[in-house]
Amino acid sequence: MLIAMAGLPGTGKSTLARPLANACAAIVLDKDVIRAALFPMHMIEYSTQQDDFCMSIMFQVASYMIRANPSLNVILDGRTFSRRYQVAALEQLARELATPLKIIECVCSDETARQRLGHKGKAGKKHVAANRDYALYLSIKAAFEPIRQPKLVVNTDDDLAQCLALCLAYLST
Q1: Looking at the predicted structure, is the pLDDT value of residue 53 above 90?
Q2: What is the CATH number of the domain that holds 33?
Q3: Contact call for residues 30 and 14 (beta carbons, < 8 A)
Q4: Which residues contact 172 (CB under 8 A, 6 or more apart)?
Q5: Predicted local confidence at residue 119, as pLDDT
Q6: Which of 5, 6, 10, 25 is geometrically suited to a Cys-Cys bond with 105, CB 3.0 to 4.6 A?
Q7: What's the pLDDT tens digit per position in 99-130?
Q8: Where does residue 124 rank: exposed (0-12), middle (13-18), buried (19+ CB within 10 A)?
Q9: Distances, alpha carbon 58 to alpha carbons 11, 15, 31, 128, in Å
Q10: Domain limits at 31?
């Protein structure tokens, strides 16, 4: 199965993806980690072109993994899927792999996102994507094209265990 974590920055996609991967024996592929591995720091630009390139690499890795092990669950993390062409590319990948696609859209209140994006992670580490801030959240939110495909919407203001249970129930259908 191909599982796409969608939603604005700071809505909890990565926070939910990790325990979800543990619960359903999945591999998480993270666009931001892939970008950091591909580009030296001075060449990271967070442009649409670079985002799309990193996603194309992530899709190739997912394809390789699923073709090598068709029963593998792969979670795609790190992209908002805020544009129709991004979701269309995701659907195309699932079709090419002849694998089920599940989209989980994470949402939360603006205040929660603001707090999360202004807070350093565990042990004082900042997120690998240095451009993540509340201004980015607001910018993407203003231009977000609703995902019309079947999906689960999870409000990550709720307890993580409750969110995880909703996701697991959705994935089992």
Answers
A1: yes
A2: 3.40.50.300
A3: yes
A4: none
A5: 65
A6: 6
A7: 999 999 999 999 999 999 986 544 445 556 66
A8: exposed
A9: 21, 19, 7, 16
A10: 2-171
